[in-house]
Amino acid sequence: MSVYKALTIAGSDSGGGAGIQADLKTFQELDVFGMTAITAVTAQNTLGVHGVYPLPVEGIVKQIAAIGTDLGTDAIKTGMLFSSEIIQAVSEQIKFFKWKNIIVDPVMIAKGGAALLQDEAVQALKSYLIPLSLVITPNIPEAEVLTGITIKSMDDRKEAAKRLHEFGAKNVVVKGGHDDSSDTLVDLLYDGAEFYYFTSNRIDTKNTHGTGCTFAAALTAEIAKGNNVQDAVQTAQNFIHEAIKNDLKLGNGHGPTNHWAYKKQKVIL
Ligand SMILES: Nc1ncnc2c1ncn2[C@@H]1O[C@H](COP(=O)(O)OP(=O)(O)O)[C@@H](O)[C@H]1O
Ligand SMILES: Cc1ncc(COP(=O)(O)OP(=O)(O)O)c(N)n1
Q: Pyridoxamine kinase/Phosphomethylpyrimidine kinase domain spans which residues (predicted)?
């Protein structure tokens, strides 16, 4: 039996809906062995982020090296990286181990408004990490910050995707969750040559905490298994759609999605 492996380099969400916790649950549901390098611990629940505690860079590097020198990995997802020092150190490790399947979720701000990336670290993302990425998965506000383009239309989104490709990302997915102009959501993929449109119905719920992490983790798991980027994006969208549709109604604020739902629905079919 082949065991596919994925490493997530991200922050911990004590509430279990986003970050490392969402990534591991998603990897497990998609039959991929998950490993972690934790960059920061957050005290977080469905009501918001109550504290952010970055780890020393040395401890982050040691976690990554522990994987690189022993278990190895088929794909890597990066999430909350917090500072330019962490971004630089993570990028150096990725280059050192010659890892190729890098999925960069450029996490900046949590739903409640808390900063998960320092402002000055945006340039480090562009200079060091994005050029190493197989896929980058910004939401619309993140694509705006990274490119300086104000996104109001699909043409603006396509322009931003092209700019991110010029920064060195081989594939760009500008996710559509923040475009509330229609009941149809579009996640836009650009591979440097063509645009691909992945559509789904908008689900009316406040329980969308961790959607971006879960989407990128599902994409990473599919890449780890050897699938191509287009198929991986489609599975990631199907996975998050089921997770949002079957929300768990936990907590008093923006609740987590249901990481069991995609597999359960497949078993029933
Ligand atoms: N209300 C919703 N109904 C269905 N899918 C959604 C909804 N909100 C977000 N999604 C999907 O979840 C994923 C993450 O979307 P987005 O909200 O843009 O990113 P983020 O969580 O990083 O802000 C995308 O695949 C998007 O299409
Ligand atoms: C530790 C940690 N990492 C990332 C996020 C952001 O997750 P995201 O999927 O973008 O979801 P929201 O926070 O926007 O609901 C996080 N909150 N915590």
A: 13-258
